[in-house]
Amino acid sequence: MFKKVGYRLIIGLSIMLLLLSACAGATKDSSAENEESTEQKTEAVSAENADENDDKNLIEPHKDLNQEPVPLEMERDGTDVYVKMTTQITDIEIEPENTYKAWTFNGEAPGPLIVIEEGDTLHIELDNMDPAIPHSIDLHAVHTNPEVGFADVEPNEKGAFSFPTSSPGVFMYHCATDPVLSHIANGMHGVIIVKPKDGFPTDDEVDQEYVVVQNEWYKYNDFDDMTNGVPSQVVFSTKALHEGQPNTNGTTTAVKDSPLEAKAGEKVRLYINNVGPNEVSSFHVIGTIMEDVYMDGNPVNHVEGMQTVMLPASGGAVVEFTLKEPGEYPFVTHQFNHATKGAVGIIKVTE
Q1: Which pLDDT tens digit goes with each residue over 42-62?
Q2: pTM score of the predicted model
Q3: What residue ranges do the domains of the chain occupy?
Q4: Distance CA 105, CA 320 (A)
Q5: Which of 17, 153, 163, 329 sits CB 3.0–4.6 Å from 142 for a disulfide?
Q6: 61-198 and 223-350 share one CATH topology?
Q7: What is the DSSP string of 69-127?
Q8: Where does 223-350 sit in CATH, by number?
Q9: In the CATH scheme, what architecture does the domain 61-198 have?
Q10: What CA–CA distance (Å, rounded) separates 134 from 321?
């Protein structure tokens, strides 16, 4: 009798355990499905909120504004250089399917390259085509009272400014209108090169030269993210120093799709600038050593044999190196979290 009861009890308990196990599995699957569903809903809400934030941060007169890029106008009369620039709102695809309604100089971000010579006087006419907010231009290469030289130009107005230049280098320029961070991070940055009157000691050795710029992008016109967040993209661009060279915006693919070119054994010179606005750059060319480096692009700041060149926000340099074998040589910021976000370019070397 005892054996029969025990056997039936064991069978009953086994069935019960199987049922409980099945229920637990079903509950687990259901929980996983619910969790996945919740995650999908959260992502959808986040995306919706991001769109709302973009709309919230979009200045109303900019909403349907996409001004065509305006070519830089530049003329020389002796040591006087006359430059006409615009400030404007232009759509830029900073990565595939991600268009940023950038605040720009001349419809480019970074803005157009300005090249002058040591001792020139620079005369700038700034045409503010932005219908909503004032803009200005702060050039790190010049000497001026900033209240006058970097003064705001009101919407749909023009301003004229003159600056003497006496120091060679690779300098940043940017909008200096408050809040400065918003203007720079939204795209208002660029590079001005002041060539040394006596050149560089290595001029006769250089075969190819290019301009490379690093910048960051944040959530659209989001001052809190620009101040406290991390960049969504860190990117390179190249600006045409010589006729026929690529001239790109700062995007995640720009200097991969339009690689710089050299031949094996040639010495390459890069004028580089990190326009930030917030992060430093650890500039490095994979597969070579920078034989000659001129910090801030000034011949007196000459160092040799550098593996990596540290550029603070706004910092520049001239770097020179020889690529000895054919192949594709990437250049990066060696802060690889930023390289992963897009800061990779290519130098294509042929026989």
Answers
A1: 344 334 434 444 678 999 999
A2: 0.85
A3: 61-198, 223-350
A4: 29
A5: 163
A6: yes
A7: P---EEEEETTEEEEEEEEEEEEEEEETTEEEEEEEETTBSS---EEEETT-EEEEEEE
A8: 2.60.40.420
A9: Sandwich (2.60)
A10: 42
